[in-house]
TrEMBL record:
It is a multi-pass membrane protein. It comes from the Bacteria. This is ZIP Zinc transporter. One of its GO terms (cellular component) is membrane. Its main location: membrane. Keywords: Membrane, Transmembrane, Transmembrane helix. The chain crosses the membrane at residues 29-47, 59-77, 121-141, 148-168, 180-199, 206-223. It holds the Pfam family Zip. It is found in: Membrane. InterPro entries: ZIP (IPR003689). It comes from Lutibacter maritimus. One of its GO terms (molecular function) is zinc ion transmembrane transporter activity.
């Protein structure tokens, strides 16, 4: 079920790209909703779990490490994880961006293994991956990459989080240091979700639709 949900989230995003051809405003609103949901799940469920499970007084250092790690990934991905990707016609394949976003997807799948809040975290990742898949799919459509290659790369991207979850269940190192690794992932989630939510709006104007999307995302996470 976990693997199917993670793969399906990317496929849904791809179908939206080819079927509905959503505008930038729609994608940004979906990002706001997913960012709010992801942040809420992190604060309401992952934070309590990580501090309850940890016997280390320095667990916060691993959260900070996750924040720094995502900063490094952002350098290569150009912020694709939180919607900052500039789509241009006839763009060559961005290997650094793709590898970075795949590393991010792999890592966010690791905490799904043996997690007390598995369902909450799973849906947070699924909801987050849909707009990311839309952005990545749109990039491929407008670049000079062939459709076959674009589909293959999107399929590979869809498998990264399931691979991460599988690794978290079967690799001894990841199971032994599950708490510390989850703390790193929390830092990554905090970085991504807060940038999506709190980045400066154009001309510093209050965006009512974005505010509503954020509010709904937090409310859904709380009620879940």
């Amino acid at each position: 079920m976990t693997y199917i949900a993670l793969i399906s989230s990317v496929l849904v995003g791809v179908l939206i790209v080819f079927g509905l051809k959503p505008g930038n405003k729609t994608v940004q609103l979906s990002l706001s909703f997913s960012g709010a949901y992801l942040l809420s799940i992190t604060i309401l469920h992952l934070f309590p779990e990580i501090y309850t499970a940890s016997n280390h007084s320095n667990i916060g250092l691993f959260i900070l490490l996750g924040l720094l790690l995502q900063l490094i990934l952002d350098f290569f991905s150009k912020g694709a994880e939180h919607g900052h990707i500039h789509v241009q016609e006839n763009t060559a394949f961005p290997w650094a961006l793709f590898i970075s976003i795949c590393v991010h997807a792999f890592m966010e799948g690791i905490p799904l293994a043996h997690n007390h809040n598995h369902e909450h975290l799973l849906w947070a990742i699924v909801i987050h991956k849909v707009p990311i898949a839309i952005i990545l799919g749109t990039f491929f459509v407008k670049s000079k990459i062939s459709k076959i290659n674009a589909i293959l790369f999107l399929l590979l991207f869809s498998l990264m989080s399931p691979f991460g979850s599988f690794a978290g269940e079967n690799i001894t190192f990841l199971t032994t240091y599950k708490t510390e690794i989850t703390a790193i992932i929390i830092g990554i989630f905090l970085h991504i979700s807060t940038i999506i939510l709190f980045e400066t709006s154009k001309d510093h104007k209050f965006n009512l639709l974005k505010f509503i999307a954020i509010l709904v995302g937090m409310l859904v996470a709380y009620l879940a």
